[in-house]
Amino acid sequence: MDTKALRQKILDLAIHGKLVPQDPNDEPASVLLERIKAEKERLIKEGKIKRSKKSAKSSDTPHYENVPFEVPSSWVWTNIEELFFVTKLAGFEYTDCLTKDTISSNNEVPIVRAQNVRMGYFVENTNEAISEALSQQLERSALTKKCLLMTFIGAGIGDTCIFPALKRCHLAPNVAKIEPYSNKIDLKYALYYLMSDLGQLGVRGISKSTAQPSLSMATIRSLEIALPPLAEQHRIVAEIEKLFELIDQIEQGKADLQTIIKQTKSKILDLAIHGKLVPQDPNDEPAIELLKRINPDFTPCDNGHYTQLPEGWAICKMKQITSITNGKSQKNVETLNGIYPIYGSGGVIGRANQYLCIAGSTIIGRKGTINNPIFVEEHFWNVDTAFGLKANDAILDKYLYYFCLSFDFSKLDKSTAMPSLTKTSIGNVLIPIPPHKEQERIVAKIDMVLDTMNEILRAV
Asked: Do 213 and 281 fall into the same domain?
């Protein structure tokens, strides 16, 4: 189940007036808008906010001839400026006032940066603050009551949340304050509107297409919003939150199931390499016989690590039953429509017409992602951050892969920075080898169990 798409469908129904029924007894949004305008004018008259230049030139009643969609008759189309005071920390205020000398974790008023604004939720800054006196000096950009915050520049452009106003905070660069003129609008409704695909489409549509996308305060003020009656706003918010809570439960259940399945897979692999997943057959040729037939000089390793293995099993080093291929740079072989995949430690990163490892090999990361074995069923080129392991005739390719899945390669990592492995450290790993016939039964059993678990995951 795509819960992210489900959330967006709920928001889409909400902002189209299709999530909850309309009530003819609700005060129309047009009347509500006039009340909000009156509050705005009062604030301007009292000198608490300034009228924007564009607002001063426009008529009292905005006209929306090309609205994004039709809304119920009790709704109206308006814009952010008609409902909210929008501002930011001025550039000179940041340069002159918010400096390394004025910002300290010991001050009283936390500052709010872009990293504190996430889509739908606020993250308090506990490391940076300015003094109460400085915040009062810059009152216009202070955060003293519940409002919306929006990131207006950078990677998180358009991310919007509600500032909870648990204590006084202050804007830092890159975050806009969107403060309601009155309490006659449900902040959560406005937030959900801006979180919807349509709301975000509006944000992206007015952002400047530069190396670092940005929004001006004027463009934020121009964002259109479909406004329902206040009572309907409350009903919409209540319904969204009820449905989102159910989705949260679905996601938590899915996360719990994924955890259980991950633990079960790990247990299955552990049972397999200790000879406890499938029954033994006394008629199977012992592994030692096959190993000696392949290499008459073969000497099994001490069985101290894997105790109590079944009769017929043997212990050897990885280098005794595999070939380990170093990777090479793909620069000279990479081509757009190559026949073979190019693998790094994390997966496919390109295509080539040449290969280094043959089909049935297992990839082990040399640097970076070292604990994510990948089984490749075709020839491939491995880059220099990945080893290719190919089993000899003593073991099945898939058995080698499943052993690698069960093994914690991070134990071999001796680096202090980026995780890394060496060919020698991998080659010295001890691996338990069952009789060949038992390997077949083990691989078949693991394949069946993992297929079932993956099918369960796909169904949720």
From this structure: no
Residues 220, 311: one domain? Answer: no
The SS3 of residue 273 is helix
Dihedral angle at the C-alpha atoms of 55, 57, 63, 68, nearest 10 degrees?
-60
Q: What is the reported pTM? A: 0.73
> Do 218 and 366 belong together in one domain?
no
CA separation (Å) from 228 to 33, 83, 198, 233? 10, 13, 16, 6
**Where is the domain boundary, 210, 236, 262?**
236
User: Along the 460 residues of the chain, how does pLDDT read in single tens digits?
Assistant: 789 999 999 999 999 999 999 999 999 999 999 999 999 999 999 988 888 766 655 545 455 567 889 999 999 999 999 999 999 998 788 888 888 889 998 899 999 999 999 999 999 988 899 999 999 999 999 999 999 999 999 888 999 999 999 999 999 989 999 999 999 999 999 999 999 999 998 888 776 666 678 899 999 999 999 999 999 999 999 999 999 999 999 999 988 999 999 999 999 999 999 999 999 999 999 999 999 998 888 887 766 666 688 999 999 999 999 999 999 999 999 999 999 999 999 999 999 999 999 999 999 999 888 999 999 999 999 999 999 999 999 999 999 999 999 999 999 987 767 888 999 999 999 999 999 999 999 999 999 999 999 888 887 7
Read off the tokens for 360. 């049935």
What gap in Å lies between CA 263 and CA 406, rounded to an integer? 11
User: Domain with 155 in it: what CATH number?
Assistant: 3.90.220.20
Please check whether residues 206 and 337 belong to one and the same domain.
no
Closest CA to 48 of 179, 158, 156: 179
Does some domain include residue 251? no
Could you tell me the residue range of the domain that residue 372 belongs to? 274-459
